[in-house]
């Protein structure tokens, strides 16, 4: 990758390779990490994931960007959360972090749950997001997804997280990844259970049910007139590429990319390819003068 020229988003000063805490506007202590130097790039993780889920991206991007990673409330090293979850709440937390850092805006990279939070941030706080890069993110209301999330909710009510994990994994990871990582699955489950309380996992699923019931409308997506990279994966059986590609028609300024040979998390399965696609997109915006 080549260095990014120009000011994609505001620069900030920080201790290198640091993990810190800040308080949100409603007094909750959240954990965040800052790595690298350059234009601000916020990274919002998928559901039940923490800041470490972006490690492969930070290794490449920190040379060119100030990478800002946030543990969602109730996840990882952030404070436990007993209230209800919503994407408006996650977006407000991200905005609070930008305010805490003295930033008016940043480019935002989000995966699945984090992508929904990133889009909500752009919608609720116009001007706070300079460019969006989202993958595996379904935005429109959908009865199919509502029923699926209700199924997750029922599993958690009647069984345990291991059962839900066993059901979900074949839908989100590619066949190739599953065959190579079969022995790692128990340790990955243990890591998830260590970074989130069971009750918080349940309430996050409630937020998914609520979002799928309404979601965004095509007009609301069309109102988000900022450069957007919309990414899907060929082997994502959870949110199939056709769902994401169909939503692209509503974005006023979107670029679509399909990752072959990857499941729901291309940033983990094919990190080098993923990083190159995201970097090239941001570089193209700089070269064109869109983000100067």
Notes on the structure:
- The protein is an alpha/beta fold and 292 residues long.
- It is built from 12 helices and 8 strands.
- The protein has helices spanning 55-61, 87-100, 113-124, 143-158, 161-172, 175-180, 185-195, 198-214, 218-222, 241-248, 266-269, 271-287; strands at 18-23, 29-35, 40-44, 66-70, 106-111, 129-135, 228-233, 254-259.
- Strands 1-2-4-3-5-6-7-8 form an 8-stranded mixed beta sheet, sandwiched between helices.
- Helix 10 links the parallel strand 7 (228-233) and strand 8 (254-259).
- Helix 2 packs across helix 3 and helix 4 packs antiparallel against helix 8.
- It is globular and about 55 Å long.
- It starts with 17 loop residues before the first strand and ends in a 5-residue tail after the last helix.
- The model is unreliable at 1-11 (pLDDT under 50).
